[in-house]
Amino acid sequence: MKLHAASTPDLSHLLKELGNMTALRDTFLVEQSLLRTLCPLLGITKSCLYRVDNKGAIMRILHHARAPGHDHAPHSLDHVEEFPQEQDIPALTRELLDSIRVLGQHCVRALDGNFLIGFPLYGNGELRGYFVFQRDHKTSASENAIVRGILDVFTNYYDLLDNSQRDQLTGLLNRYSLETNLDRIWSLLAQRLQDNSGKDSRRTALPHTYWLGVLDIDFFKKINDTHGHIIGDEVLIMTARLLEQSFRQSDLLYRFGGEEFIAIIAANDLESATRSFERARKTVEEFLFPQIGHVTISGGFCGADTLVPPQEVIHRADSALYAAKAAGRNRIYHYDTLVHTGVLKEVQSGAIDLF
């Protein structure tokens, strides 16, 4: 069933929806609100928001659907695909996105008697994504202007929220972002694991496990005391860049506070996860910091078991970190291995509350 947009948009409802969107404080919810605002405006039941990284690669697709005839109903179905593979995106959609990227404007493709329509999403002059939907007639000039205006409002507000969730010194996601989104991240990881288990592993090489690591710069207080806080800040910035280079773009990296970082990564097994964290450690160890020389990090990690509260998982990784510090620093320890060898006692479920 196709819905047709009214010739004149309900401006009072549109302004109310924009007000609701800018009252949100979660970037993920703002994305959902954008689609819920545009769907009734355009008379469509389904739409997609494609998010791209700084290299233009699609890193997330947010699908939105609503019940026909319920323009203002709050209930809807949203599904997120994180880092989809190219073959999972229809060929015509890929062609449409390529045209939008090259031309820098909205584009249209005919599709089975309907039209596939897409708009670019810009922020600070850079392409941030695409808004895509399908209906049985093209958009009018007035609709195009309204959609572009709403996308501009969305991007500006999204950037403000995103900046509030980033560490001002290193540019990494900050502790506030982690605390705000931790439960949602856990839900997304659980969904990814469920989706991956139903796919043909011969066709895809998607990881089936996730891992959380706590990393800490060794002797950072001594660096500050000896060389001053300006040099200390430079060490923090460079360490953040080195960690970003070490982990994949799909991994999550946070500055948790002071000289401490948290990474949530995807890896098929313990061996692969160990290699990833060891690669990060060696990358920092081998770098020659100006005026400092060599700097090292220590770390602890454990499986990001979605059946275990995320705060407890952080505590387990933190326990492994302190064991690495006690053993001489410049090393990465796995929590479960330490428990099995008797170095640590297992953290009891529900025994801690970090936040």
Q: Can you put this structure into words, describing what you see?
A:
This protein is of the alpha+beta class. The chain folds into two domains: 154 residues, 2-Layer Sandwich (Beta-Lactamase), CATH 3.30.450; 168 residues, Alpha-Beta Plaits (2-Layer Sandwich), CATH 3.30.70.270. 43% of the residues lie in helices and 24% in strands. The chain contains ten helices and 14 strands. The chain has a six-stranded antiparallel sheet, sandwiched between helices. A six-stranded mixed sheet has the order 7-9-10-8-13-14, sandwiched between helices.
Quickly describe the structure.
With 355 residues, this protein is α+β, with helices and mostly antiparallel strands. The protein has 2 domains: 11-164, GAF domain (Beta-Lactamase, 2-Layer Sandwich), CATH 3.30.450.40; 173-340, Alpha-Beta Plaits (2-Layer Sandwich), CATH 3.30.70.270.
